[in-house]
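RECORD TYPE: inverse folding
INPUT: structure tokens
STRUCTURE:
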């Protein structure tokens, strides 16, 4: 069945997807061409460029799929409004970890051979195999038993979470970072003019193509400065979570009045987090060095974090709009920012501790890295437990016999 009335929401989403596909296609071509050039010219690591090309290519294919379902709504086809059921089964908890483990094992073995052409051939596909299945598994677990609503809306939220949300976040984070740097330079120029002269000298030294070791020795006093560390950690652990937790579920603000329950808001919020995690993790894994296995392996924890925090905020958004409980949104948002902030601070602390040996502070690694790593692992387990617990509590009304009777007697509530 087809209706003649224009559905403006789906049309707007489809236009956004069209522009996004154009940009993604150009990026794929750019990275692919650069990778081929590096492979045959012996330049930079060719695997890095090809992994990026595969990453953006995979996102493009997934966005094409999203566009197809949104197009059905734009054309007024009845199947666009059919309730979407995410394909998930318990046996995936056995299969997916095995696939991911052996993909990391094989890819890690290839990187140890240090053959650029071999990494160029195998790492892009293996990166997809390591990053995508865990996100599928985690979303299937978090949304299991929760009504997801019309399939055109599901794929709209997925597509917007991979495109417009990351773009706005990246631009905003860069603007804020540049602003912080400018304000910092102004403050230093006013209070410590001698330091400005030192930084100018350092910039001139960098222009003279000095060696990496010499450059690192020159910037060591600034990198180990407590004020610099405090500003860096503050940006990563406070400003970034404030921005990302508000904008990751951006599509939910767009569809908030059509989403029926806070439970559905949680599931679709997890979907927004999964979309962002997919985009971020695929691109953060573009590394063809021997660090590849560690980088892709660590991304599962980050994906889990993004999905839980976005689920919390999604739950809070729908509770505030549909049930007029604004406090739930602020509580969920603050909770998500705190979880994200502590995670980022721990990860940044580990990175800083590892850097300590290079800047003459080897004690940082032994004093801080073990505790921070244990804290991060504990947080990972806690976040996983929270994700399971939220699903268990929120899906109860949809599965209990007591709740089923009123839903049958009043079809309007189902939507």
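DESIGNED SEQUENCE:
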């Amino acid at each position: 069945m087809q209706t003649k009335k224009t559905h403006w929401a789906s049309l707007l989403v489809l236009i956004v997807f069209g522009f996004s596909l154009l940009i993604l296609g150009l990026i794929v071509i750019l990275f692919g061409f650069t990778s081929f050039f590096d492979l045959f010219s012996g330049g930079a690591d060719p695997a890095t460029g090809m992994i990026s090309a595969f990453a953006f290519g995979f996102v493009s294919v997934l966005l094409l799929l999203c566009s197809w379902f949104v197009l059905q709504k734009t054309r007024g086809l009845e199947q666009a409004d059919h309730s979407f059921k995410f394909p998930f089964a318990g046996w995936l908890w056995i299969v997916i970890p095995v696939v991911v483990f052996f993909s990391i094992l094989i890819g890690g073995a290839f990187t140890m051979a240090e053959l650029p052409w071999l990494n160029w051939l195998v790492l892009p596909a293996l990166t997809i195999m390591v990053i995508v299945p865990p996100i599928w598994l985690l979303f299937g677990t978090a949304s299991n038993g929760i009504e997801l609503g019309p399939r055109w809306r599901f794929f709209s939220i997925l597509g917007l979470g991979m495109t417009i949300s990351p773009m706005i976040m990246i631009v905003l984070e860069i603007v804020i970072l540049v602003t912080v740097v400018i304000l910092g330079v102004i403050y230093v120029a006013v209070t410590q003019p001698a330091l400005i002269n030192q930084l100018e000298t350092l910039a001139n030294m960098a222009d003279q193509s000095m060696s990496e070791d010499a450059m690192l020795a020159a910037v060591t006093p600034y990198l180990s400065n407590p004020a610099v560390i405090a500003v860096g950690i503050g940006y990563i652990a406070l400003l970034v979570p404030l921005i990302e937790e508000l904008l990751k579920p951006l599509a939910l603000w767009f569809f908030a009045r059509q989403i029926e329950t806070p439970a559905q808001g949680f599931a679709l919020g997890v979907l927004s987090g999964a979309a962002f995690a997919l985009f971020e993790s695929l691109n953060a894994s573009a590394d063809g060095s021997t660090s590849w296995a560690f980088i892709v392996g660590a991304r599962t924890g980050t994906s889990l974090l993004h999905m839980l925090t976005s689920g919390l905020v999604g739950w809070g958004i729908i509770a505030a709009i549909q049930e007029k409980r604004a406090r739930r949104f602020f509580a969920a948002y603050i909770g998500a920012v705190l979880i994200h902030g502590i995670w980022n601070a721990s990860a940044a602390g580990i990175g800083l501790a590892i850097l300590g040996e290079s800047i003459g502070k080897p004690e940082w690694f032994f004093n801080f890295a073990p505790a921070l790593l244990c804290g991060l692992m504990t947080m990972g387990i806690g976040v996983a437990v929270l994700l399971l617990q939220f699903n268990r509590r929120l899906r109860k009304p949809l599965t209990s016999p007591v709740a089923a009777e009123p839903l049958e007697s009043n079809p309007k509530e189902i939507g």
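NOTES: The two ends are 19 Å apart (CA to CA).
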